[in-house]
Amino acid sequence: MNILVIGEARQVEECQAKFGKTHAYQVAPGHQEAERYFLSNDIIFDFNICESPEQMEVYRDHPKAVAFLNSAKTSLLGLVAGFSGQVQCNLFGFNGLPGFLNREILETSLLEGRGGKLLEEVCGKLQTKYQVVDDRVGMVTPRVVCMIINEAYFTFQEGTATKEDIDLGMKLGTNSAWPI
């Protein structure tokens, strides 16, 4: 598959780690540059849209585009509702926060419950497991992890635990290494 990544080189690397290097990847740092590549790519992973929601206009005139929009900081519906035009393409939300894409299961959301069959087809071609979650700000995983991180900072601030204690707790409790 041809995959367009709207973002930075590190996000292309994360896509390659998640979906494999057998796909052709193209990167565009911004939306204006990316729009000219829409027709030559099968899928778009837009990591930047949550920081520039006004750029939703690039999706308006591309009814055949299949785009995964980083919707961890805002809902997919919020992105579309904030745009005054009509978006014609197929949109899915995904968790594009650093380190959250390359996980066993791709966390996704549907726009008003539409596109489940297409999502299944696309994820099949990407050879990735996926889970549809409600289209809410923060999705699921970031909300839970951020809650844990907040509590970790409270325990450090109160003197209950050292940074090393918290790091060990994160490794044991979440099976990951996210040091504070």
Classified by CATH, the class of the largest domain is: Alpha Beta
Report the total helices. 6
Give the strand tally: 7
SSE string: EHEHEEHEEHEHH
Please list the strands of the largest sheet in the order they lie side by side: 2-1-3-4-5-6-7
Instruction: Work out the helicity level.
Output: 25-40%
**Architecture of the largest domain, according to CATH?**
3-Layer(aba) Sandwich
Spans of at least 5 consecutive residues with low confidence: none
The gross shape turns out to be globular
Rounded to the nearest angstrom, the radius of gyration is 18 Å
Fourth-tier CATH superfamily name of the largest domain: NAD(P)-binding Rossmann-like Domain
Mean pLDDT: 88
Cα end-to-end separation: 37 Å
Notable characteristics:
7-stranded mixed sheet, 6 helices, Rossmann fold, 180 residues
Descriptive overview:
The chain has 180 residues and is an alpha/beta fold. Helices cover 34% and strands 19% of the residues. It folds into two domains: 2-132, 3-Layer(aba) Sandwich (Rossmann fold), CATH 3.40.50; 141-174, no CATH class. It has six helices and seven strands.
